[in-house]
Amino acid sequence: MRRALPLLALALLAAPSRGQEATPAPRVAISPRGAEEIAVGPGRMRVEYSRPFVRGRKVFGGLVPWGQVWRTGANAATTLTTDVDVTLGGIPVPKGVYTLYTLPGEKQWTLIVNRQTGQWGTEYDPKRDLVRIPMKSLPRSDFREAMTISFVPEDAFRGSLQLSWEKRVLSVSYAYRK
Which of 69, 85, 120, 174 makes the best surface tag, with the fewest CB within 10 Å? Predict the structure, then answer.
């Protein structure tokens, strides 16, 4: 019996105590990744981004300041990939991979299509801009907690690329370019 007590004591010391987890709990991303893809003519367009949440913060004019280039999401840079030539806002964009930034304004927003890719979202080089495109800005009737980028098709060749967040919708037209 005397031998069993020391072995039992060692076993209890080696076991995790209450409150200690044997395996760590999975981490949930604060701004999870999102993606949207659509067929455009004979090809496809895809946007990949991180989705920030309002979480009680002042978004436009606060978290997203007026008059400063914004990464258009969170974390890594937002990417647009197109395997066909398209137009955005009527301006030609050749097939390829690009980073999307926005320039927020109280009255006017601008979409920036930039040739630099693979960088963190805050690493912006204006010398790599392909085009800058005026965006439509409209109020939303409902509240959107998570930023969402989506394609809204009109037909198989055209539609609009929309960014929705809080009580705002920003959009720019897209179309297949033959």
Answer: 120
SS3 labels along 71-98: CCCCCECEEEEECCCEEECCEEECCEEE
Does residue 134 belong to any structural domain of this protein?
A: yes
Domains in the chain, number: 1
Q: What are phi and psi of 4, to 5 degrees?
A: -65, -35
Distance, C-alpha 150 to centroid of its chain: 10
Of 161, 176, 155, 170, residue with least CA distance to 80: 161
The Cα 15–Cα 7 span in angstroms is 12
In tens, the pLDDT along 2-30 reads: 454 454 444 444 555 555 555 565 566 78
Tell me the two tokens of residue 145.
């907690």
Conformational region of residue 118, where left means phi above 0, alpha means psi within -120 to 50, and beta covers everything else:
left
Give the domain extent around 70: 29-176
Residue 70, C-beta contacts closer than 8 angstroms, at least 6 positions apart: 64, 101, 102, 103, 104
